[in-house]
Write a structure and sequence with these properties.
The complex is a heterodimer of chains A (183) and B (277). By secondary structure, chain A is mainly α. Helix content of chain A is 40%, strand content 2%. Chain B has 277 residues and is of the alpha+beta class. Classes of the chains: A mainly alpha (183), B alpha+beta (277).
């Protein structure tokens, strides 16, 4: 480069050009494909989220095989309780039409714990009036019904349809009222 | 190789040629029959694999998804929430949310006669609620408030993200690009509703997405599907017959959280007392 009166300007220009070229190449290299199609983001991220595998299914999926259980569950007050809440998500049980694992069947003290999650009347803040949820005071409820206080909820209540046995007993013994012991 | 090519070049007699054709014919028929069986089996497997449960949201399945066709909204009815924590359990399982991080949670509000407000959320309500024994004041009012992403129309988290990893989809969902997120946690600070956290395994921001993957499959979000009392409701405002549309057009008092922040949430509350924040 000859040393003329404008050499310093030429050098400056080259540096600026170099920086611009770097920025352009960098932007081309590092901007993900389709960026800006919908906004300032990579549109493929929407598809990534859509592709996320299902873990929970719906009660309808369970009912399609477990017809017998569904015949009770769908009739009783507990039809609103999702199968998967107590038994675990369907995705861990059936994949691509094949059984891949067995879900939990709740037993023992876990039954009471699950029931009281919703029905414990000692927890204030639950909606009052019994329209949304019927709460019981535990173990007072057992004393009131004149049964042993170590009884589990499912010894009287069918967990899938809680009033099934109670209503059946009432039909058999029409005189029995709440609080009386059924022998 | 050479012997093979030599054999193929060998001139066949008439009988040999016929035998070869017959063999080929037989194998051809075998292949056809086998293919038919295999094909039908394939179809059975195809139908069985990845089969979705019946649609819960109308108008999503069976056609190409149009971003402009839907305007989803979420309503939480505080008067129906019993604090069972089904939603939190469903959410944790659906996303394998790490312990002590919450995409959704339930707060218990107890308001004393003198106006003092007690709020707690043991483990986000994941294991339900035990009775509170530490309050010796008479309680005037008590209720549960489920919290989740507000899906703001004007979301602060989207504005602050320096790398475009948090964004708003054309159908109104605020989602995260887990590939782009650098985990700077700017959005965690920006969110007025504290719904964001840094995922300890992914080292990116994470939050409730209203189960976008389920919605796009025509299913309700996992928490809505699990809620036994219909305290959580989800639907399309563009569908005038949806429960959501009916509620939002009803004379009920509908509120949003932190209205003064100007975020315009798509999450609405029914029955929220003035103490709720």
């Amino acid at each position: 480069m000859s040393k003329g009166p404008k050499t310093h300007l030429k050098r400056m220009g080259l540096v600026v050009l170099g920086v611009v070229a770097l920025v352009v190449v960098g932007k081309l290299l590092f901007t993900p494909g389709g960026f800006g199609r919908y906004g300032h983001y990579r549109p493929g991220a929407i598809d990534d989220e859509v592709q996320r595998p299902l873990v929970h299914e719906t009660d309808a999926s369970c009912d399609s095989c477990h017809e017998w259980d569904a015949s009770f569950h769908k009739k009783g007050k507990h039809k609103v309780v999702s199968c998967e809440f107590c038994h675990g998500p369907g995705g861990r049980h059936v994949k691509d039409g094949k059984v891949v694992g067995h879900l939990e069947v709740q037993k023992g003290g876990e039954i009471n714990r699950l029931c009281l999650r919703c029905h414990d009347g000692h927890v204030r803040a639950r909606p009052q009036g019994g329209k949304v949820i019927k709460t019981v005071l535990y173990p007072n409820h057992l004393e009131k019904q004149a049964v042993e206080t170590d009884h589990l909820c499912n010894q009287c209540h069918l967990v899938h349809a809680p009033l099934e046995y109670i209503n059946a007993a009432k039909k058999m013994f029409p005189m029995v009222k709440e609080g009386e012991n059924v022998q | 190789m050479s012997s093979n090519s030599a054999a193929s070049r060998k001139v066949l007699t008439k009988d040999e040629a016929r035998a070869l054709i017959d063999r080929d014919r037989r194998s051809f028929i075998k292949k056809v029959i086998g293919g038919v069986f295999a094909g039908s089996l394939l179809m059975v497997l195809e139908a069985g694999s990845g089969e979705l449960p019946p649609a819960q949201l109308p108008g999503v399945r069976g056609r190409e998804y149009g971003f402009a066709d839907h305007r989803f909204a979420f309503v939480v009815d505080i008067n129906r929430c019993i604090g069972c924590g089904s939603c939190c359990v469903a959410d944790k399982r659906e996303y394998n949310v790490p312990d002590h991080a919450y995409r959704t949670w339930i707060e218990r509000y107890l308001i004393a006669e003198d106006g003092e407000v007690f709020v707690d959320s043991p483990d986000g309500g994941l294991h339900g609620f035990k009775p509170r024994t530490d309050i010796d004041k008479p309680i005037r009012d008590g209720f549960f408030v489920p919290k989740l992403c507000n899906m703001c129309k004007d979301a602060p988290c989207v504005q602050v993200c320096p790398v475009g990893a948090t964004f708003k989809t054309p159908d109104g969902f605020v989602l995260i690009d887990y590939e782009r997120c650098v985990g700077c946690a700017y959005c965690v600070q920006a969110c007025p509703y504290a719904v964001r956290y840094i995922h300890p395994v992914l080292h990116t921001a994470d939050k409730c997405t209203w189960c976008y993957h389920r919605v796009r499959r025509g299913l309700l979000p996992a928490c809505v599907n699990a809620c036994p009392t219909k305290a959580r409701k989800f639907g399309d405002l563009n569908d005038p017959d949806s429960e959501i549309s009916k509620i939002l057009r009803s004379p009920e008092i509908i509120t949003v959280l932190k209205k003064e922040m100007g975020t315009a949430p798509n999450l609405y509350y029914l029955g929220a007392r003035q103490e709720v924040m």
